[in-house]
Specification:
single chain, 824 residues, alpha+beta, six-stranded mixed β-barrel, 48% helix
Length: 824
């Protein structure tokens, strides 16, 4: 019997090819979209869940007053936790990140150095936090012995090829020799803990002349990532709540109020973006929910299409049902037949959907900029979703014909092949729902795209085109003046500046800043940067009062004292401030130019820096960070002052951008002065654009899936318009015989579907405005949601719908009326 049902179902699918194709294709696209997006969301949510006992692993993060959450903690945090919670915590581990240049004297490139940004000093026990898998050598003593080194498989391959690196040496900047103790497997992609090299904290202490057996006593230095593993049975939340209480016992109580430490679950780190000093970039949880909602919407639209078209097609078979019942078919047999057809059609859609997932995955991952697998056959939740979609949509599509039509009396069916208007109303309601969702996505995609374009093209307050940034190490800083002079002499180079922070990317340092006559509380959130002469002129930033730094003045100050024999105190520094900082001074009724400035850091009454000077200039505000953040009050100090060289970057400007020949020229000039140190450069405009990569991906994905939802909605509209045209063939024929024009018939048929689309737009517009207004709140600089977005969305949806319906209406209106009437 089942074989017979399936055979009839197969013949029905072949007989009604267009309906079958629309049904299968729509549901396949919807399922593929959902599986891709759900797999991406599951991948992002799986970060750091692979570690053993990951539910007991936490990072010690802090909330800094006026600056928000920060991923780092000072060196004194781990010793404090060991003393206070040693009985409750299984592991307490700190890591210190640096960047350095490495070369392998025993490797495959013994003469070439490479800049490494993921070099960490780690304390013993980190292997238990990260779940390190040793491939070669041993971790015994690796995090205790000075100048030991653990490297990942990929870096071992890079420096030593296929040779065993254990026991061999890597030289860091300053010819510091590290002996390789072990090679470990690279951690999976779904972890926030990206590292390439691990050495011991004892090495860091050795290099910084810090006593080996002493604990770090500062909550500022060194900045560390601190992790703990809570013992089984202990309450992590209770420990987290107690940390701020005991923090005041180890530092000044008033100061402790500004720095609230807490335990952050390791599995939540990647999902909580916006932390200062984060190890690796996280992802916004709202964005993930947006993607998952899009996937759900697309799948829901496809299911609605499937159900809508299936019921419409079933109504056309009322006479077939009547004939079957007259010939003795029982209601149960008819029900089984319709359900078999629904399940068979849906099965084809599922198979095609899985094929589309495989074909679309490379494109999808390329759009996201990450690589992940879609675990179709290994993830039980995805398998369950696929089966649920198949069963539920098949049942819903088959329920109406199976239970309603099969229950009608044969005489009623054969006398009247039309169905009551209630079912037509239901179908139109579903069309409204479909186009409301698709129009909502189109609206959101338009706003997201324009926001990204707005961020990418908005004026940042300085000219960032034609700028190259070059990272500086100690070797380069030792030759900084010679480097600047040589690079400035290269053809096409307009200026070279040594600075501490890249403009448009980095806010700077956050010490305490005090202006004469201004309360410290009012000037807490102030950034400090180090720049050299003519920096603002070369950047295109106007000096609106006073002057910028100049060799004609003694702006570098003088060291008047070495506090505790180690930390410099400077006086008579020249200081430049931006308009926002000047506004703080003006609000206190003080003059800006000549105002005394103090920049300092203190801890428990001990000063670690104390720089004093007077304001010599005010520059107009510009974005020292990206456009997602507001312009902050900023103080600028001379990069090369009496105490130290604060430069980290060379900023090179040319007149007409950079070509390959010019980059080669700059590299050669660099290598003549500091051979063996890489010319590590990047284009500033590209780095700024990378800051908006997440917004670009969001806009692109929203746009792609908005188009898909429109296509799915139009497929459903096409099917329903075909159904409507078929059911009204006799009416259309009679109208034509009575003189109706083709245009009039098209208008009559089209408006039946255009009106629901207009209603859908009226639903989508206020919802889209609300959702995107909420989304835009995260940006300091944002696009205005103008009437243009509403008009563009409306035109897009109406044009798609009109073309879909008009094509079928035209076919019906131009058909031979004689054949239409005769066929009835």
């Amino acid at each position: 019997m089942l074989k017979n049902y399936l055979k009839i179902a197969w013949r029905t699918l072949l007989r009604q090819r267009i309906f079958s194709l629309i049904n299968v294709l729509g549901l396949a696209i919807g399922l593929a979209c959902f599986l891709l997006l759900a797999s991406y969301v599951k991948f992002e949510q799986s970060y750091d869940s692979f570690q053993e006992d990951s539910d007991r692993i936490f990072r010690v993060s802090q909330q800094i007053r006026d600056f928000g959450n920060s991923a780092w903690a000072g060196g004194a945090v781990a010793p404090m936790l060991r003393k206070e919670f040693g009985e409750q915590l299984e592991e307490i581990v700190s890591l210190i990140q640096i960047n350095t240049y490495l070369k392998s004297v025993d490797g495959i490139n013994p003469e070439e150095s490479f800049r490494e940004d993921y070099f960490f000093y780690a304390e013993p026990g980190f292997e238990n936090i990260a779940g390190l898998k040793v491939l070669q050598g041993s971790l015994k003593g690796a995090f205790d012995d000075p100048f030991s080194l653990v490297l990942t498989r990929s870096k071992a391959k890079h420096y030593f090829g296929d040779e065993n690196p254990v026991g061999k040496v890597l030289l860091a900047t300053g010819d510091i020799a590290f002996e390789v103790k072990a090679v470990v497997e690279d951690l999976p992609a779904n972890t926030h803990m990206k590292f390439d090299f691990l050495s011991s904290v004892s090495t860091f202490k050795n290099l910084n002349n810090f006593p080996q057996n002493a604990d770090f006593g500062s909550f500022w230095w060194p900045q560390t990532f601190t992790y703990v593993k809570v013992k089984e049975g202990q309450n992590a939340q209770a420990i987290s709540d107690r940390i701020p209480e005991i923090n005041g016992n180890y530092r000044d109580p008033e100061e402790a109020k500004n720095y609230q430490y807490y335990l952050q679950p390791i599995q939540s780190i990647h999902l909580q973006s916006g932390f200062g000093g984060e190890w690796t970039p996280g992802v916004d949880q709202k964005t993930l929910w947006i993607f998952l909602s899009i996937g759900g919407f697309v799948l829901l639209l496809a299911c609605i299409n499937f159900i809508n078209l299936a019921t419409a097609r079933a109504i056309r078979r009322m006479k077939e049902i009547g004939v079957r019942k007259v010939n003795g078919a029982k209601r149960g047999q008819l029900m089984a037949q319709f359900l078999a057809e629904a399940f068979l059609t849906n099965a084809f859609a599922l198979v095609l959907g899985l094929i589309l997932v495989g074909l679309a995955q490379p494109i999808f991952t390329s759009m996201l900029g990450i690589s992940f697998e879609v675990p179709l056959f290994s993830d039980n939740s995805l398998i369950g979703i696929v089966l649920a979609v198949w069963i539920i949509s098949s049942l819903l599509a088959g329920v109406f014909p199976a239970f309603y039509l099969s229950g009608l009396r044969p005489d009623v069916i054969l006398k009247n092949s039309q169905i009551s208007g209630g079912k037509a109303l239901l179908r139109k309601s579903l069309v409204v729902f479909q186009f409301a969702l698709s129009s909502l996505l189109v609206f959101c995609a338009g706003v997201a795209y324009m926001q990204h374009t707005f961020l990418r093209t908005s004026d940042m307050g300085f000219d960032h085109q034609g700028l190259l940034t070059v990272k500086l190490g100690n070797a380069a800083k030792a030759q900084i003046e010679l480097l600047k002079s040589s690079l400035e002499q290269q053809s096409g180079v307009i200026s070279v500046n040594a600075i501490s922070n890249a403009p448009g990317l980095e806010g700077g340092w956050n010490p305490s800043v005090a202006f004469r006559g201004v309360e410290i509380e009012e000037a807490f959130s102030i950034y400090v940067q180090y720049v050299d002469e003519s920096y603002f002129e070369n950047l295109g930033v106007e000096v609106i009062a006073g002057r910028e730094f100049s060799p004609d003045f003694q702006d570098q100050g003088e060291v008047t004292e070495m506090m505790r024999g180690q930390f410099p105190k400077m006086e008579n520094l020249g200081v430049v401030v931006n308009e926002s900082a000047a506004a703080i001074i003006a609000q206190a009724g003080q003059e800006t130019l000549g105002n005394a400035v103090r920049i300092y850091t203190d801890e428990n009454g001990n000063l670690f820096s104390d720089y004093n000077g007077n304001i010599v200039g005010v520059v107009e505000d510009y974005h020292t960070q990206d456009l997602k953040t507001t312009i902050k009050p900023t103080v600028f100090l001379p990069v090369k002052n009496a105490a130290f060289d604060g430069s980290n970057i060379l900023l090179i400007r040319t007149g007409n951008g950079f070509d390959e020949a010019q980059i080669t020229q700059l590299k050669n000039a660099w290598n003549q002065i500091i051979p063996g140190i890489p010319f590590d450069y990047s284009f500033l405009d590209e780095r700024i654009a990378q800051n908006y990569a997440q917004e670009a991906r969001t806009g692109n994905l929203l746009g792609a899936f908005a188009i898909l939802t429109l296509l799915i909605s139009c497929l459903g509209l096409l099917g329903l318009s075909i159904f409507t045209a078929e059911t009204k063939r006799k009416e259309i024929g009679i109208r034509k015989v009575l003189g109706a024009s083709v245009q009039g018939i098209i208008s009559q048929l089209s408006k039946e579907f255009i009106y629901p689309v207009i209603l859908a737009l009226l639903i989508a517009f206020p919802l889209g405005f609300y959702l995107m207004s909420q989304w835009l709140e995260q940006f300091a600089t944002k696009v205005n949601i103008s009437i243009g977005f509403f008009l563009a969305t409306g035109m897009t949806s109406l044009v798609f719908a009109w073309l879909t319906v008009t094509w079928q209406s035209w076919k019906a209106a131009t058909s031979n009326p004689v054949k239409s009437i005769k066929s009835e």
